[in-house]
Amino acid sequence: MAKRVAENPIITPEMVKPSEPNLEVVGAFNPGATRYGDEVILLLRVAERPILDDPDLVGVPVLNLNGSSSQRLEILTFPRHSPLTDLSDPRAVTYEGRVYLSSISHLRLARSKDGIHFTVDEQPTLFPETKYEEYGIEDCRITQIEGAFYISYTAVSRYGICVGIARTEDFKSFQRLGLILHHENKNVTLFPRKVNGLYVAMHRTAASAFNGPNMWIAYSPDLLHWGDHQFLMAPRIHHWDSRRIGAGAPPVETPEGWLIVYHGVNAKDGYCAGVALLDLDEPHKVLSRSHEPLIAPSEDYEVSGFFERVVFPTGLVPMNDGRWMVYYGVADRSVAVAETTMDELLAVAKGEPALMGAGC
Predict the structure, then answer these.
(1) With 345 labelled, which of 89, 90, 205, 249 sits at a CA distance of 20 to 30 A?
(2) CA dist., res. 313 & res. 289, Å (int)
(3) CA 313, CA 310: separation in Å to the nearest integer?
């Protein structure tokens, strides 16, 4: 059963220094997570918005794509009370029919010896750079493969939502490898080893006229070119994941299958964390799937925030004493962590009654 630590939330926006003086940090959440040496490494999604003196204006930060300017960001302003301005969703600003994000996100490194108490870097680790990252980079996952760490992240721009990938060996220098999937795709999580000679990734497509957003599996010879896409999972009516699902933490190999922690959404609880098992040799085959969530929003820091009722798992990290730490974003604002064991995760994934509702 996943047990929330007493220190939650372990990282809040107040702990993060803005990247520029005219910005304020409104979110530090949805972290990619891994072990590096004797430390737990998080790559936080840090969301910032402009500080404006005029209350009648609303500001939108975007990447400055003008190569002649030294400013990394451009602040667009719109009349707050205009009928052409829609602020109904706190995550977005719509003006004259065009949608912008109300904040821009980058990735920021945080490190810890015990997995609970973190020190956050003062400067961004990965900042938006390309036209496909004009509105920010978000919600990364970190997977160690063959001695290197691969960071898959969501890139947002006027062209849509895409998936980028970067590589590092030391969390000091990073190499962007480019976009790996077409637009309107996100929640990409890489497997830690090849299966039948190919790299494997989970991804989540956008909704269509025929169904909601579904999880898929894709295969690649080189981590850059992906194909052989195969359906994995869909939302389940009358379950905790009835409205929306998406990959969470990178898969963990166990003798019983690939264990995945993923998120699901329902009308009652909002965003929850759940568990599933996939076949080791054919990971597009689901062996079992939790009947109830591993963690559902119930604490104040999970229920209230920038966006209400959100438990968004993005990291699953082993500790030396046998504990597994589930790192998750809460309410699109902060980071929380819950402790569990692999036996307990497997039991929940297989739907064993004794553990149903644990941690909820």
Answers:
(1) 205
(2) 16
(3) 10
**Those residues with Cβ within 8 angstroms of residue 19's Cβ, 6 or more apart along the chain or in another chain:** 46, 48, 72, 106, 123, 124, 127
Query: For the whole prediction, is pTM greater than 0.70?
Result: yes
Domain made up of 3-355: CATH architecture: 5 Propeller (2.115)
Contacts for 298 with CB less than 8 Å, ≥ 6 apart: 360
Given a contact cutoff of 8 angstroms between Cβ atoms, the answer to whether 108 and 120 are in contact is yes
**Per-domain residue ranges for the chain?**
3-355
Q: What is the pLDDT of residues 319-334, one digit of tens each?
A: 999 999 999 999 999 9
Cβ–Cβ under 8 Å, residues 277 and 258:
yes
d(CA 186, CA 105): 15
pLDDT of residue 356: 34
28 pLDDT higher than 50: yes
**Do the beta carbons of residue 31 and residue 110 sit within 8 Å?**
yes
Cα–Cα nearest to 140, from 205, 187, 104, 174: 187
